[in-house]
Amino acid sequence: MNGVLIIDKPAGLTSHDVVNRVRRILGQRSVGHLGTLDPLATGVLPLVTGSLTRLAQFYTSSEKTYQGVVRFGFATDTYDAAGEALAPAQPVILTLKEVSTLAEKFRGKIQQTPPPFSAKKINGVPAYRLARKKTQVDLKPVEVEIKEFEILSVEADQASFRARVSAGTYMRSVAHEMGQQLGCGAHLESLRRTAVAEFEIDEAVTLQQLEDSAKSGATENLFVHPRKLLPQFPSVAADEGNAARIRSGRTVNLPELSRARQVKVFYGQRELLAIVTRVAGTLFHPKIVFVTEPARQSVTGNRV
């Protein structure tokens, strides 16, 4: 079963928890995800199954879009609502203008320190393991880019926002630093991811929907149409002869395209056969071959 499935992750589960649930539902071991979500967060969690798990290398730098709420008045050790308060809550009343002005400081390329409770490694050890043991966690700032950061509304001590950010950006750190700058403390009250790369929330299905579909044998209708994947790469259809050559890892001549360095190759309308790299002119060599046997009926369905 080769495909891409967009799960609407519920709060309280880790991304790995979701992967394990989907493995059981589909009865398939080969399942991975394209970008971790914190347990508190909900929303878009793209999963790849079968040979398409090899797509993960193309999504390591994907931008993400979020909606969420920052609560001002106290900070927490995890920088979100799941953590322990670092000080008693203090009453805070903010205005939309005040928080919007503050948000402007975070737009663009900035240096950001990851939260101590994160998967960033210190001497090979994930920071969150050290933080749980109350060990000092010293993480170095990294450059991230916040491409959009809009405060949608402010009510008492809570500010709702929308953000579009580069890979590696922690909205928990943004919330924490906003609280520091205002001198009142703050943390991320809630977070919902609405997009990762080309995958959006309106394509997502719940774990319950997936389980119900699996019981009725209709999971193929929930998978993303393979032609939507990696829109930055042009695509070409291979005839039977070229498909056989690609499956065996041989270089092929493909129809004239743009001067793109990498191209998606399909066999028929639905089977993503390979990603190939240009050697010269119309000559391409397989970089990744997803299918090594003659085409079978695809498990991916009509979802676009």
Notes on the structure:
With 304 residues, this protein is of the alpha+beta class. It has helices spanning 15-26, 96-104, 127-132, 171-182, 207-216, 240-247, and strands spanning 3-9, 31-33, 42-49, 64-72, 108-112, 121-122, 125-126, 142-155, 158-165, 186-196, 199-200, 235-237, 252-253, 262-267, 271-280, 283-289. The protein has 3 domains: 3-62 and 198-224, Pseudouridine synthase; 64-194, Pseudouridine synthase, CATH 3.30.2350; 227-289, PUA domain (Archaeosine Trna-guanine Transglycosylase, Chain: A, domain 4, Roll), CATH 2.30.130. Helices cover 19% and strands 33% of the residues. Strands 1, 2, 3, 4, 5, 8, 9, 10 and 11 form a 9-stranded mixed beta sheet that branches. A 5-stranded mixed beta sheet has the order 12-14-15-16-13, covered by helices on one side. A hairpin with a 2-residue loop joins β10 (186-196) and β11 (199-200). α1 packs parallel to α5 (207-216). It is elongated, with a radius of gyration of 22 Å.
